[in-house]
Design brief:
By secondary structure, the protein is mainly alpha-helical. The chain contains 17 helices and no strands. The longest helix has 31 residues.
């Protein structure tokens, strides 16, 4: 049940601080992971395969996540997921062969999904709809800050103490998150506790029924969030490649991304305020339009100065859209089938993230990076068009009322 006396500060200790730590721990292994895999003796193709296991685990973990949460509840699921992450991080720190990392990274991706879906279901239960934009944009901002600090700490630990220590750092951050979870995660509402736990078979049937019942939502809003996820992932690939093509050094590209990231961090709370005062579409549409415009303009940014302007334009778009995916997902989630809906929603967004590298790689290999960028921009414009024409405003409306 939503609390009429809700305040954002109520989320600080149980969710925001652990969210920052959780993102920092995951970020700690990012710059080190390919080096660690290579140091264990993997060639380049095997390194790529091992690297893909985390994303594959995250994608395939969505449906099982709904089953686990339906059986054990949100609180126990989150505590169990982060406990598993501690154990998996410890195991990854002591492997001696790259093949041993394959199941470990796959499992890490799956428990990350489990933790994420359970936490988002908590926000759906605890946060009133008129506060949800700010609540989730703040969560997105905390995670972005953690994702910024984590790689710095992981790289420093790897340089000073060895590559394995990045996973040790992940384990330590996860232990801190586990402490906060055990000590401060709220108990589930009486209604949630009283609701009978579904069997695995019943949960799967519910998901198929939900997919059919909400087919308009998944076809329209689902396309919007898939497009957003695709262009967000595309930026991580295309922009560094473009910087290299125009002659920028790795350090200059890193500095550029640091500046762009600061722009995003400055915008995440205003984005949530806009969502809660004027509506979700007022951030989703500008986010997609600015993002897409940046990709369209990228091929003409052939100097570092122009490239920086385009990168900042894209960062403004991404900053405006902080938390929009999570906010829309909780707005549309039916109260009685929240977890199942969120698992399906996350599957759609993960498909966008998984498709992005393949599309960019194919277009770049057959044509050029300069051709791949406008293609991504067109996908973003299509998402903005869908949001404008086919998606109703969700602020102050019930989740079950969004049918045509």
């Amino acid at each position: 049940m939503q609390n009429p006396e809700f305040r954002l500060r109520h989320l600080l200790v149980p969710f925001y601080i652990p969210g920052f730590l959780w993102a920092a721990g995951a970020g700690a292994i990012l710059p080190v992971l390919p080096l660690y895999i290579r140091a264990l003796g993997a060639d380049l193709p095997l390194t790529g395969i091992v690297m893909s296991m985390f994303a594959l685990g995250a994608l395939t973990g969505n449906v099982p996540a709904s089953i686990v949460i339906a059986r054990f509840g949100k609180r126990r699921t989150m505590i169990g997921a982060i406990s598993a992450e501690v154990a998996l991080a410890a195991a990854a720190a002591v492997v001696v062969h790259p093949y041993q990392l394959i199941p470990l990274l796959f499992a890490l991706g799956a428990v990350h999904t489990l933790f994420f879906v359970a936490r988002l279901a908590y926000f759906r239960e605890l946060v009133p709809q008129q506060n949800r934009g700010r609540a989730l944009s703040l969560l997105g901002g905390e995670m972005r800050m953690g994702s910024s600090i984590g790689p710095v700490l992981g790289g420093f630990a790897a340089d000073t103490l060895g590559l394995r220590t990045a996973f040790v750092l992940l384990g330590l951050f996860s232990l801190l998150v586990l402490f906060f979870g055990i000590a401060f995660l709220p108990e589930e509402s009486p209604e949630s506790r009283a609701r009978p736990r579904s069997s695995d078979e019943k949960t799967l049937r519910l998901m198929f029924t939900l997919l059919a019942d909400k087919r308009y939502v998944f076809a329209t809003v689902g396309f919007v969030v898939l497009a957003l996820k695709l262009i967000r992932e595309a930026r991580k690939i295309i922009f560094p490649l473009w910087g290299n093509l125009i002659g920028m050094s790795s350090s200059a590209i890193g500095l550029l991304f640091g500046v762009a990231h600061l722009v995003e961090l400055a915008l995440f709370y205003p984005a949530g305020t806009i969502m809660d005062r004027w509506g979700r579409k007022k951030t989703a549409v500008p986010c997609l339009l600015l993002f897409s415009l940046g990709f369209i303009l990228l091929p003409v940014a052939r100097t570092p100065a122009l490239f920086m302007l385009v990168a900042i334009l894209v960062s403004i778009g991404n900053g405006i859209g902080a938390g929009i995916n999570m906010t829309l997902s909780t707005d549309f989630a039916p109260q009685e089938r929240t977890v199942e809906f969120l698992a399906l929603w996350r599957t759609i967004t993960d498909l966008g993230g998984a498709a992005s590298p393949m599309i960019i790689g194919f277009v770049s290999a057959t044509v050029s990076v300069a051709a791949a960028a406008p293609l991504v921009g067109l996908v973003g414009f299509a998402g903005a068009g869908m949001m404008i024409t086919a998606v109703g405003e969700t602020l102050h409306r019930r989740s079950d009322s969004f049918e045509p």
